[in-house]
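Recap for those who missed Tuesday's class. We walked through two folding examples back to back. For each one, the amino acid string is listed first and its predicted structure tokens come directly after. Nothing is annotated here on purpose, so try labeling regions yourself before you check the end of the notes.
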Amino acid sequence: MTTNAIPPSLGHLSATELLEGFRTLEITPLQVLDTQIERVGLFNGDRETGINAFTETLFDTAREQAAAAGAEYVRLAREGGRAPALLGLTIATKEKHGIAGLTLEQGLAAHRGKIAAVDHPVVERIKSAGGIIHARTTSPEFSCATTTHSPMWGITRNPWNPAASPGGSSGGAGAALAAGFTTLATASDIAGSTRIPAGFTGTVGYKAPYGRVPAFSSLSADWYRGDGPMARTVADTALLASVISGRHALDHGSWGGRDTNPLLPGDVRGLRIGLSITLGDYPVAPEIRENTLRVARALENAGALIVPVELPWTTARIAETIFAHFGHILGPAMAVETAGTEDQLAAYTTRFIADAAAAATRNTLVDSLGMDHALQAELATAMQGLDGLLCPTSAVTALSADGDYLNGIDTPARHLGHYWEAHMTSPFNVANRCPVISVPSGLADDGVPTGVQVVGHPFEESMTFRIASAIESLVPGPGVPLLR
């Protein structure tokens, strides 16, 4: 596997490294923030040709917070005591994670000028843990595409290959992490929107079990959906997960304790790990297949038993299943939210609403529940006796940065009727009590990273992070992209 040997800048250091540096007073939060601000100025560029990872920046306020955090570390070093979990770390939040008094537009012309009344629970918890929100990241309209571009915010590009998308919908988050613009980032996931950009940007993205991360909106009741963390390492992802997860008094769908870091040492000796390269019939690109097998061999050499897993799935069936669901929940919601501005929508949004509506005419909501149950039962059967399941994150190596893919997507093996069939993430939104984390597996020939998913049994977060941590230690990541 080819890796990029460029040494990381201060802006690319992990959260765990930075926290140690802050505690020993060898690094200050302001130094890190200023390095990342400088990188944004040098490399983020414009909305058409640049990386374009942010909807807005909050640098002035962030610099004040970073200076205050540095002073607090000096006080703690002198007087003793424990710093809040994220004190002094930069976090770029997805724009949909509202910040009171700032915009909450979600890339939609219909929401232009809309202001958030309260902080999203993710934002609330980051602030209370001492995190510094210095920027807000781009997404496609209503976070509903696997590329990241919109008429409102322009095109977001992959730092590894500007012609390629960083994925979506949390594409701005993945791009910002890869480029060294932030230390941590928030994301969301209804069909892979955290894991897809993690896979394409050489970063780590975690989809927690449904309800583990609280939210306030009515659509948070959609059981496919969830918010979560992204970072450059498994440990950093676990750190942010530990802060934003847990029961919230105002979200009775949320559950679990607070401040419990799920990361365990990455020892896989004696574990039984399932391996499915295709999850049925996904047309997995040769480079992705080889990188996934490399991960499996590394786990096997470390003492795990790799068990081949067969699943009776097809991409067409999975697409029909998720669009039946969307046809009764997300599609109608989007139609309501965008009413009167249809002529201003991105082509992919118009297509999504139409596809969801068509699926709803073919399948009732009760039909949809039955389709969900069948996939869940088949996954449960396949995972019996296993400690986790390993599979690729996406079947294709890249998507075009500005692509709409209205006619599906061509792969070397066959044409896929819907481009969402190119990603191997949505079955685990159907089975949304399963924790799933995407970690890097290598690079493809086009210079874009590839990823693998670790799928855990329902609610078994610790084992999922344990296997992911082992992969990270055994298989070197792609490194740092060369930016010009």
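Example two. Treat it independently of the first, because the proteins are unrelated.
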Amino acid sequence: MSENKQNLTTSWGAPVGDNQNSMTAGDRGPTLIQDVYLLEKLAHFNRERIPERVVHAKGAGAHGVFEVTNDMSQYTKAKVFNGVGKSTDMFIRFSTVAGELGSSDTVRDPRGFAVKFYTEEGNYDLVGNNTPVFFIRDAIKFPDFIHTQKRDPQTHLKNPTAVWDFWSLSPESLHQVTILMSDRGIPATLRHMHGFGSHTFKWVNEEGKTSWVKYHFKTDQGVKNLDVKVAEELAGSNPDYHTEDLFNAIDKGDFPSWTLYVQIMPEEDANTYRFDPFDVTKVWSQKDYPLIEVGKMTLNRNPENYFAEVEQATFSPGTFVPGIEPSPDKMLQGRLFAYADAHRYRVGANHNALPINRPKTEAKNYFRDGAMRFDGNGGSSVYYEPNSFDGPTEKAEAKTTPFNVTGQAAQTSYDHHDHYTQAGDLYRLLSEEERSRLVANIVGAMKPVAKEEIKLRQIQHFYKADPEYGTKVAEGLGLPVPQELVK
């Protein structure tokens, strides 16, 4: 027997005498309630699963490093992006959106692309997707949208009628729907897809000058997508295909990387740009605002423990550092609350103290107590502010920069906005073969829809984006294009 054998202990550190047999009254039992180790073992097992994420439940993660290749100090004072050669540790979590924790990796779904930078000024989270836009532009619609992606409350089955009913009644979704139903809807691997911050954010430099910014992570492996039939086969034969591929690539030293670019819009341009720059269903033309290289992200280390590092990782688009701030983007504004609140519910009030979420800099504040407070809980230090005992105080330089707010306080509709131009432009950019696959994917997804009026309403949106687009979908479904559109 090895001299280095470790003693098994209880969770309170006492040695375990027997881990194979419970304490019973005689050989046949019954089991005695005084077997406290048995009770502890079973009770802990019952609690080994925290609630899964409402969205982005299925995910894979990895550690890495971000290195600046182009100094951004003229635009932002955020140290993570300043100084060529500057290196910052980071962690990323990729995910599917709609499926449960055990769902397949190769379904048609957007992919979450959440990056946590462990900077010397605190953590910075960039919580985006593998698409530059989203289905909706206002967070008040998010619960309803996600309900359509989940299971029907009666049948507990996925419901295509609900999906297309919502999209057909939300024409702002057309741009994202077109991306989702195209080849890009099923990436070949997590390594072969781009990532985006999606929202518009504000950058502030040392002089207080502000700019609007969008983030683009371009995969250095090249974009590759899965054939629909291959994806379906993998969903049955290896539902963890993407998770496995990422782990194995890093494990053998084939470290995937992405080059980060940004688009920079001068603050004043937001008032005159031809699209609302804070509308997450729209992109900015790269002819108007070219991509500027920032740096390279390389994933070089797998998690040692999935639960501790991937499942307990918490990301929020409101986790900022000085020099990076939110924009008026309505979807972003809702996410600033919703994400952190989801983590407080799912993981606990002290989720940011867990090793995977803990900042490299020491957190100094007056937050106390709460479930699972496993550090010193502030010790005997002063626990309120302001105080006369030299407790931590605010830093004026870290204040959010002011910006002008105008207009009535009202619930403003986007009905008058253009939902179709960018979706049509995207359709026309696709090759003939890509358009054919896009239409085939849409037709296949819409055939199970129960009500014909939903199909016809959605066909109108496709037609308004591009007449060929709408006509081909209509033909595939054996339906006419509404006559008022073709006159």
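Answers for example two:
The two ends are 88 Å apart (CA to CA).
The chain has a mean pLDDT of 93.
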